[in-house]
Amino acid sequence: MPPGTDPARRAVVTGLGAVTPIGNDATTFWESLLAGRSGAGPITSFDPTGFDVRIAAEVKDFDPTTAMDRKMARRMSRFIHFGMAAAVEAVDHAGLDFSDWSPDQRDRAAVVLNTGGGGMEQVIEGTATLAAKGPGQVSPFAIPALSGSMAAAQVSMRYAITGPVITQVAACASSVIAFQDALRLIRSGECDVVIAGGSEAALLPIAFAALGNMGALSKRNDDPTHASRPFDRDRDGFVFGEGAACVVIESVAHALDRGAGDRIQAEVIGAALTADAFHISAPEPTGRGAAMAMTRAMRDAGVGPGDVDYVVAHGTSTPLNDITETRAIKSAFGDRAARVPISSPKSMIGHLLGAAAAASGLTAIGAIREGWIPPTANLENPDLPECNLDYVPLVKRKARVDTAMINGFGFGGQNAVAIFRRFEG
Q1: pLDDT score recorded for residue 416
Q2: pLDDT over 90, % of the chain
Q3: Catalytic residue among 81, 93, 254, 314
């Protein structure tokens, strides 16, 4: 905590929610992570015949009417469905009831729900309708459904939250920034409660075609559950995924005043954001910007490398990212790098882009709360000598985790890091 910060403004997590390829609630997500269960499989959302990549990590058996009525669900995009469901679960888990809040209380609540792409399917569907049927048949709800800010706006309307409603688009770093913004809103005293996270639903033919042509996606079509292989010498790209994760973050004073001390899962203690200023998709080879983000996040949290017990890696399973992230961890952690456990949930859930780091946040909180570090699945042959750290291969590990770091690195060189800690009153 930075010097001079009011202890009552510590930011604590009181609620969790998730919609992922390995579980449509936070508990199932966590249990599946520990089991090393993969959510990857053949694409079912469209016919991938003729595509080089025909696998993805899709959300399964999801019913949007668990979070909204059927009429609203028909008018909204899939990323809004996911974001709403994760937010509703997080609010319920936190035991928050906004129904009797005064206008002043609602003014001191916020929503920060980020995304990488928003409702891109609406552009594709709307364009097809326009071409086939003319302008009079294009849905009037297309713009609200495609807007990246609309998931956050819908959550604010669900709970009549009238404080800041924020959406930031920063590719795969997006939902780390949600944690950073929530921390700043709580620390500054502007807000008492923030619903924070990320949502993404971009499994569209054009995205697969473009990313496949870029060489970013795994082409292990005949073995999808083993396709995402972070830090493994046989990795050949990431598995495209979808989903959402949200948390409720409150000032500790607010949580305790409403009798929610037993709901506190962890504390958000620091975050930082930097840029590579290097390339539209490739990480800067030395990892300098990523390392600087880790170092600044630790400084913001008031901890050092020796205090971090677990790193939830960005760990995409692409040749460049895994080597660069390893270099960055070595730079930021020094001698501690060889001893800190690291793992990548993307080995099981694929890459959720703008929602990836929100899922990493739930992973870090789970490790702190439960004393288990999820594995890096499919890591059978480390890519030595470049990837030679402790990536917790194949099976979960029992460990006391007091402080955990999450990394999120996005296209365009956006590097974001957040740090969580066990809460002690």
Answers
A1: 97
A2: 88
A3: 314
Choosing from 191, 254, 351, 387, which is the catalytic residue? 351
Q: What SS3 class is residue 251? A: strand
Instruction: Please indicate, yes or no, whether the overall pTM of this predicted structure exceeds 0.90.
Output: yes
Torsion angle (degrees, nearest 10) of CA 32, 89, 424, 342: 30
* Residue 5 within any structural domain of the chain: no
pLDDT tens-digit map of 87-146:
999 999 999 999 999 999 999 999 999 999 988 888 888 888 889 999 999 888 888 888
Helix (H, G, I), strand (E, B) or coil at 272: strand
CB contact at 8 A, 74 and 246:
no
Do 170 and 249 fall within a single domain?
yes
Q: Coil, helix or strand for 291? A: helix
Residue 296 predicted with pLDDT over 90: yes
Residues 310 and 163 in one domain: no
User: With contact defined as beta carbons under 8 Å apart, do 108 and 191 qualify?
Assistant: yes
CA distance 147 to 179: 21
In a domain, 3, yes or no: no
Q: Which has the closest alpha carbon to 298: 316, 260, 271, 317?
A: 271
Q: Are 196 and 178 in contact (CB under 8 A)?
A: yes
Residue 351 annotated among the catalytic residues of the structure: yes
For residue 382, the enclosing domain spans 269-421
Answer yes or no: 279 catalytic: no
Model confidence at 156: pLDDT above 80: yes
* Residue type for position 410: G
Backbone angles phi, psi at 143, to 5 degrees: -65, -50
Which of 172, 191, 246, 387 is the catalytic position? Answer: 172
Residue 411 lies in a domain: yes
The DSSP code for 22 is T
Residue 246 is among the residues annotated as catalytic for this protein: no
Within-domain flag for 300: yes
Residues 279 and 238 in one domain: no
User: Beta strands 266-275 and 414-421: pairing type?
Assistant: antiparallel
Quote the CA–CA distance of 211 and 159 in Å, as a whole number.
Answer: 37
Q: Is the peptide bond before 385 cis (omega within 30 degrees of 0)?
A: yes
Q: Please provide the average confidence, as pLDDT, over all residues in the chain.
A: 95
